[in-house]
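Tutorial, part two.
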Amino acid sequence: MQQDQKIKGFTILELLVVITIVAIVSAVGYPNFMKWREDREIRAAMEKAATMLTSLNNLSQRGNFPFVQLKVTPNGTTNTVITGKGMNLKTLSSKLNSGSSIDCSLTNSGFWDNHMVDKTTKDVSTHLNGEGSVCFSQDGTYYKTLGKLQSNANVTVEGRSTNQYLIICSTSNASNNGKCPLNQSDGLKQPAYLVEWTRFGNVSKFKWNGSDWNRQ
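Running the prediction step on this input gives:
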């Protein structure tokens, strides 16, 4: 039986053309893909911090744990651990009745009744070079900060100055000293995000546009 002579395959030239086109498209698209991926990772870390702050505040407002803490433990350009903790009403009342101070202790045990959750974010950095914590209560009476969050420098957000924030950036942006720069003159670059809070637990999220913070 005679084969159909019209059946043809790809020539070497055609294959080379296709391979060249794929290589060019990949070379053009790869940097944009990596930039998008980096931004997504840093945004996810910011969302973890914002969500935990909101959850802790909700627990405080409902009375489940009237005194709560968010602790941030940065490990340079390796990872950052965000921990939520709570003190129940019985412990809080006991400390108040005994005259003990209600502080924002960084200890993991012996002070807090519940070590709620750890969120580890890899390959992102914060503006802190050591542990810091922020604590909330139902009516804002016992709002406190400790460690590196207590010594937060002021930054400008929406034309106003605030020291109640956490900046999250890429590890490459923090490569000089292991922490995120605070502003453009300091060397802060995109992608970077900022979580801001108030003493009453209100949380706001911002994205760095290269010169200012845009609300998300």
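The chain has one domain: 18-215. In part three we will examine how such features are distributed along the chain.
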